[in-house]
Sequence to fold (489 residues):
Amino acid sequence: MAQRVKSVSSYFTSSQPSCIAAVPTDSEHLIIGTYSLEKIPGCDFSDDDSDDENEQACRQEEGDAGERRQNRFGELLMWRSDGVHQLMYFNCGILDIAFSPHDPDRMYAATSTGSILYLRVRRNKRSMIGMEDFDIFMVVEIQVFKTNILILDLEFHPIHKNIIGITTSTGSVSFLNIQGLDDRTIDSTIPMYRPTTPSFTITIAELYRTTLEAWTLTFAPNGSALYFGSDDSTLGTAPLQPASRLFFNPVSPDPHPDIVGPHRLSQRRFGKQNPVLTAQTTSLLSAPASVISRTHTAGVTSILPLHAQGPNSILLTGSYDDRIRVVRPSRKPVARTLAEQDLGGGVWRLKLIEQEGGGGDERRWLVLVACMFAGAKVVEVRCQRWREAVEGQGEGDGGFEITVVAEFTEHESMCYGAEVVKSEQEKKVEGRRREVVSTSFYDKLVAAWEFGGKEGSSDVEGQSEGGRESDNEDEEDQDEDDEEDVDKP
Fold:
């Protein structure tokens, strides 16, 4: 049975938390992105309103490109278990956060006004011994698209340091190549990291355009493919050229339809941003992008590659239809769902906690899931016959199973963010209890909780002294399920 855990500490933000990411050099420090929505006719954004129609309207409005300028406000918070250590305000909502795997100090944030915030997160040398802290420095805002377009997701290429993948509310799945913002053009002795050159260049290449919002994307760990999901229920695969052969040739006669024109940055000391150039995609793809549309019954919102070598990729996916799935999207054999589990809420984010297996034929993954109306959960994915799953031998299903091992249900609105906290001491201890921080939107809650370790500890609910479930638990679970069926989008 899944552990039902409760919070060990909590904090309330001043605006709605929408995303969260751990600082790579010290995951006890977390960056939380928020945004406040402008009130629009027919949509009441009051804090205590959890009505289903209101929630759905707000989520739809988030993905609506629209024709009018948005009026949103957002924050970036540097958070640790003892509270917020730094707070930055922006005239745009923060929708996603990504740290560079090539430079752990570099952070990009996707905004609701078509821009990307480039920031630096560095250790505070003024901190007392044993009380180290970090500072966030704003470097520059990069205006990529028109201001009525939302950048919904972004991720760094795992090998090519200047390339990031992004998705938008208009359905665009694109690559950006940003030149002129590397360490050679940034004076790190100045607190604001002022560039010493007057300009930088951006080249965009659209790999695919979906019919509705493109919610998510992720790279294969070796950079061989890009996977993406859309609100039209499609799951896409874009095979990529090797990193050494990824060339952006800005000679396309047709400019990207969403890009912004020449734009001067709000902070004049950073100089002029050159016009965004449009590149051909033929030099980026090793084969045309392909999509499947019958595997999911609602929008695809999260993707975690389990196997991404060769033609038979195996992906863990999340969807608005409340289900988490193990999917093999290749056409031979035809795209198949190898396992699935209803989690009771939209599966918004998937984060790998750990994985096991190597020489044998069994595999195991432990995954943290932000489940919107169903709170946050930890699921275990097991495969009994890995070679069969990868090579498509026999039945080809590999014997996959998905099990919920822990769940946190104190969130009173949509859980969009969850992250695992790993201290240096915890990283060295097997079988340790793990700390998680998860967030919910309208109630503005940031909650820390733990799972694993010894059963029946003080932060685990739903078990009596002998480990026997309470007599009324099944009835209570059914009541909760009925309520979630009413609330979910």
In short: The radius of gyration is 22 Å. DSSP finds four helices and 33 strands in the chain. The chain has a mean pLDDT of 81. The first helix runs from residue 52 to 62.
